């Protein structure tokens, strides 16, 4: 079965997890009803937005609430979820953490953002992760990274050389750098000959206007679905066999010469 992927481009309510859980529940229900997706993707920090000064109060304790919430919806609708990311509080720190839930409602992986974005003060409030975002979703080897991570092609490549065929990107990417967002995502798809599924947020917070433009890009670099700047969703069916076809046509992975790269 070919994956049908929906990105939900939310307008996140700043610092208001209760409202955001509610709107995500409604938007997942309506995406399932109208688009029949097999995989749903949410944006970065969708429970709290960038309300970093209040994380002590509003971050999710060990991610428990989010994991239960997404598992329940995944099971109810038999859909896999790339659960954007949330602020996860532990005894030691708060991380910007993505949960991957399969269509049985099981949490199959969690990835914490490796590269913290200083321009949005992340380094003052969040701790970086230390593990790759590699997982299988609906049988497809995939990678998941968070926003600023896409500026580090070597980090993405480290996932791709381990066999990932879809790169999921979840983000809160501001409008003034929309050109970078589109160019970096298309470049990551072309250089890695993979699908890129990128879910950004829409709307405003007290410091930023966000770019929207969630995108689904094929391994040739063609944009097959793209949102505008407003809240909404995009959906596309993808054919994972295209990854092998493109990798056979131009054998970039076989032609790498890593011994010259450092
Ligand atoms: N939330 C983020 O990591 C934003 C990254 C960003 O805006 C960039 O230009 O990079």
Number of strands: 14
Helicity, in percent?
A: 25-40%
Backbone CA Rg: 17 Å
User: How many domains would you count in the coordinates?
Assistant: 1
Structural class comes to alpha/beta
Number of helical stretches of at least 4 residues: 7
Q: Which ions and ligands are bound to the chains?
A: ligand LYUYDEPV
**Termini separation (Å)?**
41 Å
Architecture per CATH nomenclature, i.e. the level-2 architecture: 4-Layer Sandwich
Characterize the overall form: globular
Largest sheet, if any?
8 strands, mixed
Q: Can you describe what's shown?
A:
It comes from Metabacillus sediminilitoris. The protein is of the alpha/beta class and 262 residues long. The protein has a single domain (4-260), classed as Carbon-nitrogen hydrolase (Nitrilase/N-carbamoyl-D-aminoacid amidohydrolase, 4-Layer Sandwich). It has helices at 17-35, 55-58, 64-77, 122-125, 153-160, 178-192, 241-249, and strands spanning 4-9, 39-41, 60-61, 80-82, 86-89, 94-101, 107-112, 134-137, 140-146, 166-170, 195-199, 215-217, 223-226, 232-237. Strands 1, 2, 3, 4, 5, 6, 7 and 14 form an eight-stranded mixed β-sheet that branches. A six-stranded mixed β-sheet has the order 8-9-10-11-12-13, covered by helices on one side. A hairpin with a 4-residue loop joins strand 5 (86-89) and strand 6 (94-101). Helix 1 (17-35) runs parallel beside helix 3. The protein binds the ligand NC(=O)CCC(=O)C(=O)O. Residues 44, 117, 120, 147-148, 151, 172-174, 177, 180 line the site of ligand LYUYDEPV. The site of the ligand NC(=O)CCC(=O)C(=O)O has 11 residues, from loops.
């Amino acid at each position: 079965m070919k994956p049908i992927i929906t990105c939900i481009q939310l307008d996140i309510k700043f610092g208001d997890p209760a409202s955001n859980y509610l709107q995500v529940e409604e938007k997942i229900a309506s995406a399932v009803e109208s688009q029949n997706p097999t995989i749903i993707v949410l944006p970065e920090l969708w429970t709290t937005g960038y309300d970093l000064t209040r994380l002590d109060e509003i971050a999710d304790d060990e991610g428990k609430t989010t994991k239960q919430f997404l598992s329940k919806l995944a099971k109810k609708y038999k859909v896999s979820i790339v659960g954007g990311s949330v602020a996860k509080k532990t005894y030691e720190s708060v991380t910007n953490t993505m949960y991957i839930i399969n269509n049985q409602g099981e949490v199959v992986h969690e990835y914490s953002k490796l590269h913290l974005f200083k321009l949005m003060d992340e380094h003052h409030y969040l701790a970086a992760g230390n593990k790759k975002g590699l997982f299988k979703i609906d049988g497809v080897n995939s990678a998941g990274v968070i926003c600023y991570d896409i500026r580090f092609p070597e980090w993405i490549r480290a996932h791709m050389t381990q066999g990932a065929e879809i790169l999921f990107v979840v983000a809160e990417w501001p409008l003034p750098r929309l050109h970078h967002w589109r160019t970096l995502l298309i470049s990551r798809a072309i250089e890695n000959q993979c699908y890129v599924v990128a879910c950004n947020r829409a709307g405003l917070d007290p410091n930023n206007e966000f770019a929207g433009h969630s995108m689904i890009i094929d391994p040739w670099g063609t944009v097959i679905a793209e949102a505008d700047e407003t809240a909404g969703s995009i959906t596309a069916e993808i054919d994972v066999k295209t990854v092998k076809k493109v990798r056979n046509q131009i054998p970039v992975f076989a032609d790498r010469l890593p011994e010259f790269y450092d």
